[in-house]
């Protein structure tokens, strides 16, 4: 399937957003879609359809799937991937858009990278802060539940961006609003918790 403007914009937004939650699963799904000819990948993303890249992404996606279910390990994984998810989201969206806009391709690619990085940063911050807050609870079920929600949300949103872009856009807007709210509440909660710990610590 060749991409029209609506599909291109939806997939660009979906790639940036999904990279902030499940980077390796996102890379794997895009590679599979390109490898099997479900979408025509632009030159900047054709490498993702390589069996070697898909194999590496599959292994890392499995590791991330398992690490994301373990309290504290999930937060350590998120902390490490602060340096990976955001630039990767920017690179994926730039690779999708590159070569699409003709004479203005470089400008559009740069704007796409900013969009992808911004969406990845928002999704990553919401995920990391929510999981850090959940880790203050001794039970593991909230972590597992939140992780499974991410496992389902990423392929669902990528599919909607490809198959039903005009359904995807309002869901993305709702998701970003929810994420911004979660970031605000979780940071306030974690800051208050840190203050309580400091006050209770022996002098």
Topology:
Elements: H1 5-19, H2 23-35, H3 51-67, H4 73-81, H5 85-97, H6 105-134, H7 141-163, H8 165-200
Could you walk me through the main structural features you see in this protein, from its secondary elements to its overall organization?
By secondary structure, the protein is mainly α. It has one domain. It is 77% helix and 0% strand. The chain contains eight helices and no strands. Helix 1 (5-19) packs parallel to helix 6 (105-134) and helix 4 (73-81) runs antiparallel to helix 6. The radius of gyration is 18 Å and the shape is globular. The model has no long low-confidence stretch (mean pLDDT 88). The chain crosses the membrane at residues 44-67, 79-101, 107-129, 141-162, 168-190. Residues 9-183 form the DUF4126 domain. InterPro entries: DUF4126. Keywords: Membrane, Transmembrane, Transmembrane helix.
Write out key terms for the chains shown.
mainly alpha, 203 residues, 77% helix, 0% strand, single chain
Brief synopsis:
The chain has 203 residues and is an all-alpha fold. It is built from eight helices and no strands. Helix 1 packs parallel to helix 6 and helix 4 runs antiparallel to helix 6.
- Percentage of residues in DSSP E strands: under 5%
Radius of gyration from the CA trace?
18 Å
Give the number of helices: 8
Proportion of residues in helical segments: over 70%
Shape: globular
Unreliable spans: none
| Number of discrete domains | 1
Helix/sheet category: mainly alpha
Summarize model confidence as the mean pLDDT.
88
